[in-house]
Amino acid sequence: MDLISPSSGLIFWQLFGFLALLFILIKFAWKPMLAALEERESTIDNALKAAEQARNEMANLKAENEKLLAEARLERDTILKKAHDASAKMIEEAKEEANKQGAQMIENAKAVIETEKKAALAEVKTQVATLTLEVTEKLLRKNLSDEKAQKDLVDGFVNELKLN
Amino acid sequence: MTRKFLALSLLISALLLSVSSAVFASSSETEESNESPTEFIMHHVKDSHEWHFFNIGHTHVTLPLPVITYAADRGLEFYMSSDFQNHDTHLFGEENAHNGIYIDSHEHLGRVDGGSIMDFSITKNVAMMFLVIGLVLWITLSAARHYKKNGAVSPKGAASIVEPIVIFVRDEIAEKAIGPKYKKFVPYLLTLFFFIWIGNLLGLMPGAANLTGNIAVTFTLAILTFILVNINGNKDYWKHVFATPGVPAPLLPIIVVVEFIGLFTKPFALMVRLFVAITAGHIVILAFIALVFIFESYAIGVVSTLMVTFINMIELLVATIQAYVFTLFTAMYIGGAVAEHAHDDHH
């Protein structure tokens, strides 16, 4: 067993032992271990990427929310303004309608009153005429019961006629 | 803490230095040294057929290991290393032949009838290799079980030790040195790193074998890298070797030879670098320990212990660095073989 000349027996065992070690370790240690390490590294990478993405999304979402909020505010203002306008218009219209209806009613009432008045006047005239006729008849009957009174009346008519 | 420890050890050294000559004199008479320091160091650094831990007096505490031999005419045979030893001295030698086979004092197998025989023994380093493989399997499989059980979750237990290394090898070594096609090679690099690293660390344990500092081991690892690099070499890689672009025609024969030799010097450098780094570390540590036995002085013992502790800490670093370097260079050679490079960027 010299120091610097390799012995064949040891070379044989070393070759055998090391190759056995190599194959066992490749199959049962290095492959699962390197795979696990790689998996873990990719998991960490992905997690970091996902976090970055989430942050970006969050920022986007926030911006979008703000935009939406601004839009909503604008829309609310528009709607309020429209509602305001509509209500004002409705009030205006209602007023107008009421005025019109009132005027119409007054008109109608006036017409009715006129008609009633005319009817009443006609009635009154008829009554007056009837009364006058009755009075006149009574007077005539009484006044013309004597000759003289008749003659005076006729004279009176004749005088009047002459004047005309 | 360290300062206190240093001060204390210096004090003890000074105290003992006064009586050291007496100690030296008495001990050298009683204990006869049967091993020179070089033998002592080489015995620990080199491979062996038995696993020797320590001696208690004259009793050798060892683990006998299987001896497996193959000869064309005898077939496969199994023995124990203790069959070929003197039972008292635990020395191998031709005189202790068993069944026509002996192990000589340099731990080479021989046959009494002079025929050829091949040695497939489970030597100390092979046993150590099985220990290392077992430990690597235990650590990595328990880490892998965590992911299998819980899916792609954060690491816990063994997974929290293994995961950073896996990620380091994948991202800092494989991806940077190989480029976009790195994924295919990550398992090989990981296995290489863990085997060398755990082997280096276990090798530092007292009584452990010098596995990753054995040239046969580094040779095998380098050959595997060499094969992996060259079967994955693309058109650019081979063109670079046999028709190096940007080189004038008259120089081409020289360059091609150089490039061709370069194919082999790369794994050779891998082999030598790991072997030298680990073996040298062991030799330095053992040399400091051997100093104790050479001088047989308590003072030297204290200094040696301090130095050995210090070198051991450096060795912990070297164990990791060498595993990293071997893996990194393997990744770079693979990177050179699979890269689709534009030809004008260098040369």
Automatic annotation (TrEMBL), chain A:
One of its GO terms (cellular component) is endomembrane system. Residues 34-101 form a coiled coil. Pfam families: ATP-synt_B. It is found in: Cell membrane; Endomembrane system. It comes from the Bacteria. It is a single-pass membrane protein. Keywords: ATP synthesis, Cell membrane, CF(0), Coiled coil, Hydrogen ion transport, Ion transport, Membrane, Transmembrane, Transmembrane helix, Transport. Component of the F(0) channel, it forms part of the peripheral stalk, linking F(1) to F(0). The b'-subunit is a diverged and duplicated form of b found in plants and photosynthetic bacteria. Belongs to the ATPase B chain family. F-type ATPases have 2 components, F(1) - the catalytic core - and F(0) - the membrane proton channel. F(1) has five subunits: alpha(3), beta(3), gamma(1), delta(1), epsilon(1). F(0) has three main subunits: a(1), b(2) and c(10-14). The alpha and beta chains form an alternating ring which encloses part of the gamma chain. F(1) is attached to F(0) by a central stalk formed by the gamma and epsilon chains, while a peripheral stalk is formed by the delta and b chains. PANTHER family: ATP SYNTHASE SUBUNIT B (PTHR33445:SF1), ATP SYNTHASE SUBUNIT B', CHLOROPLASTIC (PTHR33445). This is ATP synthase subunit b. It comes from Algoriphagus zhangzhouensis.
TrEMBL record, chain B:
InterPro entries: ATP_synth_F0_asu (IPR000568), ATP_synth_F0_asu_bact/mt (IPR045083), F0_ATP_A_sf (IPR035908). Pfam families: ATP-synt_A. The keyword Cell membrane applies. Coiled coil: none annotated. It is found in: Cell membrane; Membrane. Keywords: ATP synthesis, Cell membrane, CF(0), Hydrogen ion transport, Ion transport, Membrane, Signal, Transmembrane, Transmembrane helix, Transport. GO terms for cellular component: plasma membrane; proton-transporting ATP synthase complex. It comes from the Bacteria. It is a multi-pass membrane protein. One of its GO terms (molecular function) is proton-transporting ATP synthase activity, rotational mechanism. NCBIfam families: ATP_synt_6_or_A (TIGR01131). Belongs to the ATPase A chain family. Key component of the proton channel; it plays a direct role in the translocation of protons across the membrane. This is ATP synthase subunit a.
